[in-house]
Amino acid sequence: MLLELRVRDYAVVEDLTLDLGRGLNVLTGETGAGKSIVVGALALLLGERASASVVRKKANRATVEAVFDIEGLPLIQESLRGRGLQCEDGLLILRREVAAEGRNRAWVNGSPTTAGVVGELGKALVDLHGQHEHQTLLRTRDQQKLLDAFGGASTAASLVTSLYTKVQSLIAEIEGRQERMRDIESRGDFLRFQLAEIDDVDISPGEDEILESEAGRHEHSEELTRGSGTLHETLYASDDSVADRLAASLREVERLAAFDAALRPEVELLNEALQITADVGRRIGDYTSSVDHDPERLEEVRSRLDKLFRLKRKYGPELADVLETAQHIRAELEDLEDGDRDIDELKRQLKHTEGALGSAAIELSDLRCSAAQRLNNSVSELLPGLGLPGASFNACLRRHDKVSVAGAESVAFLVAMNRGFDLMPLSRVASGGELSRVMLAIKATLASVDRVPVLVFDEIDSGVGGVVASAVASNLEAVSTDHQVLVVTHLAQVASRARYHFKVSKAEGENLTTASIRTLSDEARVKEIARMLGGDPESEASQDHARELLQASNS
Predict the structure, then answer these.
(1) Domain region containing 314
(2) What distance in Å separates the CA atoms of residue 298 and residue 296, rounded to the nearest whole number?
(3) The 2-10 sheet, strands edge to edge
(4) Using one digit for the tens of pLDDT, what is the confidence trace for 278-318?
(5) How many domains does the chain have?
(6) Contacts of range 423-429, beta carbons closer than 8 Å, 24 or more positions apart
């Protein structure tokens, strides 16, 4: 619901706030007072291009801001979250600013954004019927959604979309698999050669590091024997070894500690050092005995490392990479062996899904045909009463050769404004007033399934009066039970049905004209409707006539 519309420095509007309510809201005033300017300002929030010419004279910028209650509109809330925008207290504030010079700007809930984002959100909330191109019913995709909702076919349409998407996914997967099989098959001999080359070496993980360490020992066996032997003697085996000297030092510290307990920690440390030194000396002695000088083994190790090096250079750089390459090749060859079986299974799934899609599309087509017939009859019955006696409406279903994501047909709302003329798309209806009345007939029929919460009608009463005016008013009131409706009108019959009545006035300033708006009290409303009926608003007879109309409308 649109709670508030604020307009500042736009055309002849200096500062205007319109507080709207649920149900039917009407905007009236003398011709040229600025009623359609308010609607034009609202159109900015629906994506209309901004022109510097709309900025009020002597002002730097024009601002239009709308506050919506979206508490019960989960799709709008999800759309905001998807754009990373916050929604506090269930309110959505759209704002556009048009500069007299320089850059125009836009905001959603105080966050800077683009006019396009504001327009997308605005169009999801407001349908503007008049001399504007922001109406959902002019868009083919929305016509289809509305017809499906009207005919109870939304679930069937979703199933068709889901199955169609699955069919396309399976086709893409089959084609991808087939392309992959052709690629693997063309490289099959080469892959087998590579795998045999790796497998023949019979690699163990980390083998190269172990062999390199072993080769190092064999290559430097004499130096290792000599050096480790010297260390063994120095640390442990000689008469004046490090271990012997540490033992003597330990005995001396123990003697001194008997006189001063403060030296006891040093006793423990020296004892630990002696144990470690002796242990290291013995182990190095064992190592010296184990060093093996084996030229033949060294040659074997070098030969093995050479084989591993060649594999690493070709498939590496590391041995783990060689093993991974072998695994990938093995997987590709397994895919080649299993590929035909997998593709046959995918083709079976595709055939089954295509059959299900065909059946779902037939069911959807039947529901759409039935819905289109009922919609055609309902709208066509309303058109004569709305001053369009020669008009006809057709929710046309155009069959396709193949089922698409939307089904086996496309939906187009067509209309002929005069008997004997060809049906044409709604967007090609020239008269704004006629189009608005056609839209009203469609909206009245689709009111319970149309999800756009706010409807705005401008020029809907163009060229009508009498019985037709009453029919327009009655249909607007009916639509307002499911939507919030704002109507710019010259018809007293429409104004008398409103729950909220606003009047636009224009005042001549010293050098500048200014439009203003106010909510009419009961008495002021009587005078305004008396004026709209063509009488003297101050005349008692005219006011009595207005009161009778108001009383009849509210009964």
Answers:
(1) 155-363
(2) 5
(3) 111-113, 105-108, 91-99, 61-69, 2-10, 13-19, 513-519, 500-508, 24-28, 484-488, 454-458, 126-129
(4) 999 999 999 888 888 788 888 888 899 999 999 999 998 99
(5) 1
(6) 423/392, 423/394, 423/396, 425/138, 426/137, 426/138, 427/133, 427/138
